[in-house]
């Protein structure tokens, strides 16, 4: 219990500090008066972020991108995991071995960039979807969960005339909702927090995901450091406050979704990792 409380405090304190920074005045931050509670409460940093009319568009675009990415990734993960649970599948061990190898070895950053460029995926949504379309780790978790389901259920459905697709849609998937919800959350968080791939593949501002958009805002405000040194601090927002508000702006949507899936989280991970 003490360990759990310690971990909770370790995770909560930095979060509270970021909230306090984002809601504190410039003078309080510069004077290092901010700890876990806002000092000289202000919403100027959030007004700065939301004053950019393109921010709302970026938020909506990122939400759509994340939803589509999650659905597409789960579709591929299910299509890979379910057949690999069947012992009658020829070449099953070979396919699984090849997939596992990709968990430890990859072509690297430069070959990945060249591949995306040669496929004409630069400045498209697909450049943020296809390169990471399926996690082998997630696939193995889902495969293990599928394998843990009683074979008698599938045999009964097969006797009643249900084909493989029907068994998957009517029996396997409904029983696998804890794992599916958990892995969907993994994919959604991964895409929502994605930054590096967008930095490499996207130059069109209309296709910036949220993390890259916030990065551009913070970069544009780095000049405030120079203005601080000239003594004109009061009229500006210091980058620390802007960074904190940006983190909160990008974190809140995931925090809203997480409680809805949290009840599946532990059950899905533990079942997919242990049973089999």
Give a short summary of the structure.
It holds the Pfam family BPD_transp_1. By secondary structure, this protein is mainly α.
Question: How do the strands and helices of this protein lay out in sequence?
Answer:
Layout: H1 2-22, H2 26-30, H3 44-50, H4 53-81, H5 92-104, H6 109-118, H7 136-148, H8 151-159, H9 164-175, H10 177-192, H11 196-201, H12 210-220, H13 224-229, H14 239-274
Plain-language structure description:
- This protein is an all-alpha fold and 276 residues long.
- The protein has one domain: MetI-like fold.
- It has 14 helices and no strands.
- It has helices at residues 2-22, 26-30, 44-50, 53-81, 92-104, 109-118, 136-148, 151-159, 164-175, 177-192, 196-201, 210-220, 224-229, 239-274.
- The model is unreliable at 231-235 and 272-276 (pLDDT under 50).
